Sequence to fold (302 residues):
Amino acid sequence: MRRKKVLVLDAFNCMYRGYFPNKYLENDRGRPTGAIHGVFMHVRKLRKSFPGTEIVFAWDGGQDSNGSRGWRFDQCPTVYKAQRKKNEDHARVMSQIGPLRALLHYAGYLQFRVPGVEADDLIALLTRQRVERGEHVVIDSSDKDFFVLLSDNVTILQSQGGCLRERTPEHVYGEYGVDADDWTHYRALTGDPSDGLSGLTRCGPVKALVLLADGARANLPWQDQPGAVRSRTSEDHWANVMLCYQLSELPRDCNGQLQAKSCEIETVLVKHSDVQKNVDKFKRLADKYQLVEIMRDRTIFI
Fold:
């Protein structure tokens, strides 16, 4: 029996991808609208490519009541994503979060956000929950950390040359020579510059594949590695590998992760009690931001 598909969008990732091709879009009051426009144009493409498929959005939770942005930031505040600078583009994207969330709400999309939980972890948890419910999850993100979730019931949607492609475990192995289950070990060896994680010193993709073939396990201490791995590496540099693995790993326990945070998922209901009222709100907000193309195609989004 074929599984029902659900599209899980990495919301901030989608915003940034939509923003840069449209970064100079503004309304007549000078308010940036490029990210909003880009997200809805992407949703329009999804609607055409996956007709009738549920689309949900997962957001970074931001700070919780204790001031935590997530366990990775708590554990390594001077390392994790420390290289990311808050420039003008960042400010312009952040200014569009409020109206985008409101438009998605009025259009009836399910949105998830847990304060103190990053979108990566939330998407991993949602993916496992949906798979357990018998659904096929398509993760829409350019973040390669999600490769470890790939399976017969999980694919990853990425844009290549303007076309949408579903990536499978076979695609990842064909491109990188790595099984999806080993992706976090591979990433720990090569490092993840986007998150400020260095990995093993002077270890590129080729050496990482050799080490994996020798039995390297990035979650284990250097002393517990096979002799072939120890002969090619230095104990002094292995701490970086274990740290990179730990910070790149995605949660495997849905209920435990959420209960540990003492948070409830904030949801926006798919179906509203007053559909026309929300449609009117959508139209007014889209008109306020002069989102002409979104207004024109609103029947696709709502």
